[in-house]
């Protein structure tokens, strides 16, 4: 059985790196009493993987951990056992059982959604320019890839972008963007493009990932439900 564990990475631990998060999750799984599977070989380790690792400095509340178990366990029992041993800042909200043959979640991931909070005098100017920004048919930006920096058109990667809150010195944006190997739009690249278009700069940017999605029949579907 595979266990898809949906959990949060709260603001208080947004600077927790991937290796520390892996160690924390492995320790919690061992303490949970769940029948977790281990790899074979000289140094066995828990068989688990993240659907998508969050960058340091970004929080999230729909993160997913894929864990292999040696036998079936009811979802509510898995959730209860994990929340007994997880720190509150990494609390789990849902467990979905899956077949061992279920495709890797990472390969099914197509989109991600974010709350992007901009602070400073430039924030409302950026928010006010959003409608005109989205009317562009092309938005060129530098995207970092494994082979180096590349100039790409990010406009097709923006599936949703809107202002949900605006004050004199702050703006909250909601965005849903492409998130796959060939076309990933990271929040910092999006914010940079917005700043250049508005000719304004935010003094601070805080990013919170709100969802991971696959695509079914042309529609975004929460990854954990595919």
Which labels suit this protein?
two-stranded antiparallel sheet, ten-stranded mixed sheet, Alpha-Beta Plaits, single chain, 226 residues, 6 helices, alpha+beta, DUF2344
Description:
The structure is a single chain. The protein is an alpha+beta fold. The protein folds into 2 domains: 2-106, 2-Layer Sandwich (Alpha-Beta Plaits), CATH 3.30.70; 109-225, Alpha-Beta Plaits. The chain is 24% helix and 39% strand. The strands form 2 sheets. Strands 1, 2, 3, 4, 5, 8, 9, 10, 11 and 12 form a 10-stranded mixed sheet that branches. A two-stranded antiparallel sheet has the order 6-7. A hairpin with a 3-residue loop joins β8 (158-166) and β9. α1 (18-32) crosses α2 and α4 packs across α6. The chain is elongated, with a radius of gyration of 19 Å. Residues 2-187 form the DUF2344 domain. InterPro entries: DUF2344. It comes from Candidatus Onthenecus intestinigallinarum.
């Amino acid at each position: 059985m595979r266990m898809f564990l949906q959990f949060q990475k709260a603001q208080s631990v947004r600077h927790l790196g991937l290796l520390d998060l892996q160690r924390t999750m492995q320790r919690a799984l061992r303490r949970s009493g769940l029948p977790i599977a281990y790899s074979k070989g000289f140094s066995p380790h828990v068989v688990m993987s993240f659907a998508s690792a969050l960058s340091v400095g970004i929080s999230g509340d729909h993160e997913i951990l894929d864990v292999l178990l040696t036998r079936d366990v009811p979802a509510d029992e898995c959730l209860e056992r994990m929340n007994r041993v997880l720190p509150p800042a990494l609390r789990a909200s849902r467990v979905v059982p899956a077949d061992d043959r279920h495709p890797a979640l990472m390969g099914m991931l197509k989109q991600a959604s974010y709350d992007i909070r901009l602070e400073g005098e430039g924030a409302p100017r950026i928010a006010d320019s959003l409608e005109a920004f989205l009317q562009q048919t092309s938005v060129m930006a530098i995207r970092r890839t494994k082979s180096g920096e590349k100039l790409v058109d990010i406009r097709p990667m923006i599936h949703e972008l809107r202002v949900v809150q605006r004050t004199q010195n702050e703006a909250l944006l909601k965005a849903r963007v492409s998130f796959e190997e060939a076309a990933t739009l990271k929040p910092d690249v999006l914010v940079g493009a917005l700043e250049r278009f508005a000719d304004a700069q935010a003094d601070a940017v805080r990013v919170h990932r709100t969802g991971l999605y696959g695509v079914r029949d042309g529609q975004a579907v929460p990854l954990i439900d595919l």
